[in-house]
Write a structure and sequence with these properties.
The chain is of the alpha/beta class. The protein has a domain at 62-293: Type I PLP-dependent aspartate aminotransferase-like (Major domain) (Aspartate Aminotransferase, domain 2, 3-Layer(aba) Sandwich), CATH 3.40.640. Helices cover 35% and strands 9% of the residues. It has helices at residues 6-14, 46-58, 65-68, 74-86, 99-113, 128-141, 155-158, 181-190, 210-213, 282-291, 300-321; strands at 93-95, 119-122, 146-149, 163-169, 194-198, 217-220, 235-238. Strands 1-7-6-5-4-2-3 form a seven-stranded mixed β-sheet, sandwiched between helices.
Length: 340
């Protein structure tokens, strides 16, 4: 039985090794914020960074800032900051575009790499944009690849020799149910299929180890637990072993091998930069770059332990005080099976 008294809760706060991290965020006085799964809190330093970008880098230095402020390398630099949070190498992650666009790019790349296979597997009830983008991809590919949604408990059994790619959200956006990334990735690889993981509700909230799980591709957003601000740029991961063969359909100039040669024919960059499309939104990218500093020195294992304990407490308090009003439980009572 979990204690629920105010005294016990205050004692947990007093002994919390992560308590000081709250001071890294600019949260209005008296606000208890529980919507980080939709929009993260403003980290301190972000507003100042944006002001610097506007007043000095843009207003004063103008076009020189692509070099002097290194705007040109923002996608790779921010990607390298995200990489440790998802268990990837620095050159396997790049900041780019939106979650929806990135999903289309990596799912299309996976289908291209697995030509001759006609199934894209996901689950019903996945985050809507994931399903919409996969429906759109299936429409573009015609008979070459068709989306098949399968109950989450039957995913592994559904993967067969005709499966091109499995696209799943690691932590479900409604129930917080968490897939066993390693087990599903292995099952897919055993059948020759590739896997795309949507980490939008995982990154910054739970420990993720893409390389430990043998993952192929992943995507995620910057405005939820990464606190990059409304509409912040997203990110994507491509395992290094796939860099030479991953061909994405949106061949914009930032993905070119030599973008400033301004030649007519497209040549993809040899590395993760081939997943880029157009010019970086510098203001939004700079906000995310600064926001990620809030994770410096944070032990994700400790964060996960605290998250599980707080959810356990919330469930106990819900049972104690709200059940009589018909409030039920949507998430798992087993801490290891749920995300944040």
């Amino acid at each position: 039985m979990i204690p629920t008294s105010l005294d016990w809760c205050q004692q947990q706060d007093a002994n919390d090794p992560l308590a000081a991290i709250k001071d890294r965020f600019d949260l209005p006085e008296g606000v208890i914020y529980m919507d980080g799964n939709s929009l993260g809190v403003l980290p301190k330093g972000v507003a100042e960074r944006i002001n610097t970008v506007v007043e000095r880098e843009w207003r004063t230095d103008l076009i020189k800032s692509w070099n002097t402020a290194d705007w040109i390398n923002l996608p790779a630099r921010v990607g390298a900051k995200i990489a440790p949070l998802v268990g990837a190498m620095a050159d396997e992650v790049v900041m780019a575009d939106s979650t929806s666009i990135n999903l289309f790019k990596v799912a299309a790349a996976a289908c291209r790499m697995n030509k001759g296979r006609s199934k894209i597997i996901s689950e019903p009830g996945n985050f809507p944009t994931d399903l919409y983008m996969l429906q759109g991809l299936s429409s573009f590919l015609g008979n070459d690849a068709q989306l098949q949604t399968v109950d989450r408990n039957k995913i592994i059994d559904a993967i067969d020799d005709d499966t091109a790619v499995v696209v799943l959200t690691h932590v479900h956006y409604v129930t917080a149910d968490m897939f066993d990334m390693e087990a599903i990735t292995k099952a897919a690889h055993d059948k020759g299929a590739l896997v795309v993981w949507d980490l939008s509700h995982s990154t910054g909230a739970v420990p993720v180890d893409l390389n430990g799980a043998g993952a192929d591709f992943a995507i995620g957003c910057g405005y939820k637990y990464l606190n990059g601000g409304p509409g912040a740029p997203a990110f994507l991961f491509v395992a290094k072993r796939h860099h030479a063969n991953a061909e994405q359909p949106l061949t914009g100039w930032f993905g070119h091998k030599r973008p400033f040669d301004f030649i007519d024919d497209y040549e993809p960059a040899p590395d993760i930069r081939r997943m880029l499309v157009g010019t970086t939104s510098v203001l939004a990218a700079s906000a995310l770059d600064s926001a990620l500093d809030a994770f410096k020195g944070v032990d994700m294992g400790l964060l996960r332990k605290k998250s599980q304990a707080m959810t356990d407490l919330f469930i106990a308090l819900t049972r104690e005080k709200l059940m009589e009003y018909g409030v039920g439980l949507a998430t798992s009572e087993t801490p290891a099976k749920r995300g944040s």
